[in-house]
Write a structure and sequence with these properties.
With 790 residues, this protein is mostly helical. It has helices spanning 68-71, 80-91, 101-117, 120-132, 135-143, 153-170, 178-192, 201-213, 222-237, 240-253, 263-269, 279-287, 296-304, 306-309, 328-334, 382-396, 413-424, 430-443, 445-448, 457-465, 469-483, 509-544, 546-558, 561-569, 573-577, 590-593, 601-606, 614-631, 635-643, 646-653, 659-670, 673-676, 678-683, 685-694, 713-735, 750-754, 768-777, 783-789. The radius of gyration is 32 Å and the shape is globular. Belongs to the STRIP family.
């Protein structure tokens, strides 16, 4: 499964039901016919196999297939027919010769490294350029009333094999052949930097996205393009683990204190909250509790005060209380609330993972574990300290000292202690340092000199995206809107189903059901890839430079990304996450090994045994994180959440029992509580308590009780305009060459100016005397006036 903590984590294996137009008949041995050359249709992800004892790293020449067939592949690689016949099965693991799924995945990984070392990726890249520039295919697709999967056969084969190579080479394992690490780093550099005067590979894929959205190439398989683009960005820039390491390294280079905690590990340790039972059920259980569930005064009192005691989301148990363990009946009654998901949201925690301590066992020093506190260390910004001192000085002294946070003369002792506590939790982010440095470079461009910008993969990507970035963001959001389950079909919307619809529409119920599952799965994968891609870009750009992040964020906001995400969540999220739009028997690599059973309408309706879809949960978490990135510390965008009535939409999403999803929903609710009014807070006290328990505390933050009555729309507009001016100044200073003439250096030395060698025309010496007579001797010079003026 893909780990929800990181957009750069691995993903689920894709289903092999690519086009959805199968006939439902059982395939031949090992499903080879059902997984023919476009078998690389399984392009959502290829997980790496665990090491096996049979052929984990032995010489592939010992296998029956030998190296001969693999070495002979690249001869006719430029011919499309040969390409479709030989290379895709090889990159997919030569499944016709394997006996288990582990073997298929192992040899897929091995063959991808071998194909790369033989130069296959470069050949595929040239063929991809040819297919993109194929005007005949574009014009043919434009003339058709409906584009089908047959219009993009060559493109799908190319993108599928390239995806398999990128994904297999990207994944690192502890035990690998000696040359694989070198090949991986070489491959990463080829994808990250421009080679042979060509743009980075990610920019080529971005251009395919914009070309598709503009309607010039409706036959592009956009799902495969987006998946490959996501994996290429993840490979070249790094996933979240690499991002965390880069953040620690950059803070050390800037002389900032280390991070208080690892956010990924903190989120992993969180536990989800459970939905409540109806208030009526609570009242009945309080009025007439069964005698078997009463265990004395303490037990009855706890049951009567359920509503008050259950505010603790983590349900921490005091290990110093000798309390009898709960009976099975109590555990069953505690789980009754999970069956009712439509009542008022009351975050109660039933945590069966933490058993109560034994009542008779004596407490020893080795077993003592103090109750756990809040999950996050509180943070304080420099602005918070300055604002606190400004209010305190106005109150006790009558004047302020600006940004001075050290002078505390005239303030009472409690204020001194408060300032000391605030400074102890002061957090200086990398963005604060970057903004300060940018202000100094703007003020003193000559004395500070030119900024040295390291040529990192992130910097190279931003430079390539800079001038077309608005078009890229608009194109991604257009596709996301078309793939959202809440979107209605419109005549002017783009067709994202070109690489899933068959040439002939289904005529049987079974074919229609398969096509419906395929279409829904197709949209889910698109949402997953776009959400992960945008989140990954934002986080890397923010670490590279804060104004790069703000530039991308502002264009996303201008393209209505905030209402789009809210529209996505304005549905039954619980149903979306538990959707079963997959056919397990067609999953890769299962479909290449086992004999495929005959599909029936009953088997398709039953689906698989999974309780929820990790792909959709992953997408929802990414979209929530994206929304948090766009609105954090931006009052104007926070007001957009309020205007679009996001509170009830987000509150419904809390029904999903997943800790990370609930955390980011609560963050979005926290930043707008001060604008929702006292009545909303009064009627949602359980949500307020959940925010207190799960979300990081910001000292002096009045989110729980403040009312922002001074908020004015024109202030928010000025905030966005100021930010935009800073972004434009940053991009102009760093990327617009040459610089303005007023900052160009001037040579004022007479000797060096006269000593410069000038290239004169060959016939100049013939007319030199005439030039002197006309330009020098015949021109009267008033020396007194010249001296007065200069």
């Amino acid at each position: 499964m893909e780990e929800p903590a990181a957009a750069g984590a691995g993903s689920q294996p894709a289903n092999g039901n690519g086009n959805g137009n199968g006939n439902g008949k059982p395939a031949g041995p090992k499903g080879r016919e059902a997984f023919h050359a476009p078998a690389a249709e399984a392009s959502e992800s290829v997980p790496d196999p665990p090491p096996t004892h049979t052929h984990s790293h032995e010489d592939p020449g010992a296998r029956a297939s030998g190296e001969g067939p693999r070495m002979g592949i690249l001869g006719p690689v430029a011919i499309a027919n040969e390409l479709q016949t030989h290379v895709p099965p090889c990159a997919s693991g030569t499944f016709g010769e394997c006996d288990s799924e582990v073997d298929v995945l192992h040899w897929s990984r091995y063959n991808c490294f071998l194909l790369y070392q033989m130069g296959t990726f470069s050949a595929f890249l040239e063929l991809l350029h040819m297919e993109i520039d194929n005007s005949q295919a574009c014009s043919s697709a434009l003339r058709k009333p409906a584009v089908s999967i047959a219009d993009s056969t060559e493109l799908r084969v190319l993108l599928s094999v390239m995806y398999l190579m990128v994904e297999n080479i990207r994944l690192e394992r502890e035990i690998e052949p000696c040359g694989w690490r070198t090949a991986r780093e070489t491959f990463r550099s080829e994808l990250s930097f421009s080679t042979h005067h060509e743009e980075p590979f990610a920019l080529l894929l971005f251009s395919m996205v914009t070309k598709f959205c503009s309607g010039m190439a409706p036959h592009f398989p956009i799902k495969k393009v987006l998946l490959l683009l996501w994996k290429v960005v993840m490979f070249t820039l790094g996933g979240f683990d690499h991002l965390q390491a880069l953040k620690i390294q950059k803070r050390a280079e800037l002389g900032l204190p280390p991070l208080a905690e690892d956010s990924i590990q903190v989120v992993k340790s969180m536990r989800a909250a459970s939905p409540p039972s109806y208030t009526l059920d609570l009242g009945e259980s309080q009025l007439a509790p069964p005698p078997s569930k009463l265990r004395g005064r303490r037990g009855s009192r706890r049951q009567l005060l359920t509503k008050q005691d259950s505010l603790d989301i983590y349900n921490e148990r005091d290990l110093f209380k000798t309390e009898e363990p709960a009976t099975e009946e109590e555990e069953e009654s505690a789980g009754d609330g999970e069956r009712t998901l439509d009542g008022e949201l009351d975050l109660l925690e039933q945590d069966p993972l933490v058993p109560p301590p034994p009542s008779q066992a004596p407490l020893s020093t080795e077993r003592v574990a103090f109750p756990k506190g809040l999950p996050w260390a509180p943070k304080v910004r420099q602005k918070d300290i300055e604002h606190f001192l400004e209010i305190s000085r106005n109150k006790f002294i009558g004047f302020t000292l600006g940004q001075d946070t050290d002078t505390l003369v005239g303030l009472p002792r409690p204020i001194h202690e408060s300032v000391k506590t605030l400074k102890q939790h002061k957090y200086i982010s990398i963005a604060d340092v970057q903004i300060k440095n940018e202000e100094e470079l703007e003020k003193c461009p000559m004395s500070l000199g030119e900024e040295v910008v390291p040529e990192t993969p992130c910097e190279i990507l931003y430079q390539g995206m800079l001038y077309s970035l608005p078009q890229y963001m608009i194109a991604l959001l257009k596709i996301l809107l078309a793939a959202a389950p809440t979107s209605k079909a419109k005549t002017d919307s783009i067709n994202i189903l070109a690489d899933v619809l068959p040439e002939e529409m289904p005529i049987t119920v079974l074919q229609s059901m398969k096509l419906g599952i395929d279409v829904n799965r197709h949209k889910e994968i698109i949402v997953k890839s776009i959400s992960a891609l945008l989140l990954l870009l934002l986080k890397h750009f923010k670490l590279n430079h804060i104004y790069q992040f703000e530039y991308v964020s502002q264009h996303l906001v201008f393209a209505n990304c905030i209402p789009l995400i809210l529209k996505f969540f304005n549905q039954n999220i619980l149903s979306y996450i538990t959707a079963k739009n997959s056919i397990s028997v067609l999953d890769y690599p299962c479909c290449t090994i086992q004999d495929l059973p005959e599909l029936t309408t009953e088997s398709l309706e039953a689906g698989d045994n999974s309780q929820f879809c990790w792909r959709n949960l992953f997408s929802c978490i990414n979209l929530l994180r994206l929304l948090n990135k766009l609105t954090k510390w931006k009052h104007s965008r926070t007001m957009m959440l309020v205007v679009f009535k996001s509170a009830p939409i987000l509150k419904r999403a809390l029904k999903v029992k997943q800790a990370m999803l609930q955390l980011y929903v609560l963050k979005l609710l926290k930043i707008q509580t001060k604008y929702l009014g006292r009545q909303w807070r009064k009627s949602n006290m359980k949500t307020m308590s959940a925010i207190y328990q799960k979300v990081r505390h910001r000292m002096n933050d009045d989110w729980a009780y403040g009312n922002d009555i001074d908020a004015r729309p024109w202030d928010f507009q000025a905030e966005e305009c100021t930010l935009r001016a800073n972004i434009e100044a940053f991009n102009s200073r760093r990327y617009d060459k040459p610089q303005d003439s007023e900052f160009s250096p001037v040579d004022n030395c007479l000797q060096s100016v006269l000593g410069q060698r000038l290239d004169l025309p060959e016939d100049f010496h013939y007319s030199y005397e005439l030039w002197l007579e006309r330009e020098v001797f015949s021109q009267p010079i008033c020396w007194e006036e010249l001296l007065q003026n200069y």
